[in-house]
Write a structure and sequence with these properties.
It contains two helices and four strands; from the N terminus they run ααββββ. The protein has 130 residues and is an alpha+beta fold. It has one domain: Nuclear Transport Factor 2, Chain: A. A four-stranded antiparallel sheet has the order 1-2-3-4, covered by helices on one side.
Length: 130
């Protein structure tokens, strides 16, 4: 385990074409924004399409299934979510894991997110909401 902060710059490495890529920044703001949208989607709100660029197809399928179940229960969203706390940990040079606590209405959820550097941008490969 490294004591290096998550936002510490890494030396740029070449992409698949041999070009030098810019160093990716801190993914915590992206993870928090995505967690807020995902919680609202799970509670029946809209916004799943706005996450399409930042999530893998597997994560999108899981969120769509949970959204469908919430809609069948009569939930329509509309309640804004807030992030109470978030903590990031870089687990490898190309992956970061973020644990967050989010509140929506009177419910509190734990959110676990794994972001990986895919093709020069952060992409959410795992998103679990408890």
């Amino acid at each position: 385990m490294s004591a290096e902060p998550i936002w510490a710059p890494r030396p740029p490495r070449p992409d698949v074409y041999g070009r030098r890529r810019a160093t990716l920044g801190d993914p915590t703001p992206l993870a928090c924004t995505s967690a807020l949208t995902a919680i609202e989607v799970v509670h029946g709100g809209d916004g799943l399409e706005s996450l399409r660029r930042w999530i893998t197809p597997e994560v999108r399928e899981r969120l769509a299934r949970q959204h469908s179940l919430a809609r069948r229960l009569g939930r329509r969203g509309g309640v804004p979510a807030t992030i109470l706390r978030a903590r990031a940990c870089r687990v490898s040079p190309t992956a970061t894991e973020i644990a967050a606590v989010a509140a929506i209405g009177d419910r509190v959820h734990a959110v676990a997110i794994r972001l990986e550097d895919l093709a020069g941008r952060w992409v959410i490969t795992v998103l679990d909401i408890g």
